[in-house]
Amino acid sequence: xxxxxxxxxxxxxxxxxxxxxxxxxxxxxxxxxxxxxxxxxxxxxxxxxxxxxxxxxxxxxxxxxxxxxxxxxxxxxxxxxxxxxxxxxxxxxxxxxxxxxxxxxxxxxxxxxxxxxxxxxxxxxxxxxxxxxxx
Length: 135
What we know:
17% of the residues lie in helices and 45% in strands. It contains 2 helices and 11 strands; from the N terminus they run ββααβββββββββ. It has helices spanning 19-37, 44-47, and strands at 4-7, 12-15, 51-57, 61-62, 65-68, 74-80, 87-92, 97-102, 106-111, 117-123, 127-134. The chain is rod-shaped, with a radius of gyration of 29 Å. The termini are far apart.
């Protein structure tokens, strides 16, 4: 047979041979707690504030060249002053950004670019109106 030891915390009788099992359980719980509750590193988008860029659209975009940072959340605030046509298509195909801009309204497009490079901004489905540069 084997002898038993009393642990006063829970007033339980535990066989001496069980200490190895108890130690393994405590170690496993400690590792689990470490991985669950540790501070996770933040991505660039989580570390930075949201950047806002004001853009005017009358016949073309002003400014026509927009600089944004890779993996930084950016609001493109587009003020469309023209009244015709009632809706204008805007797209940045390589960044998967497609938007309809209503006449006389302000539209906010939130982007978080995951590709670096220079990309054309297309208005009306065919007309290049500017470029967005992801640095």
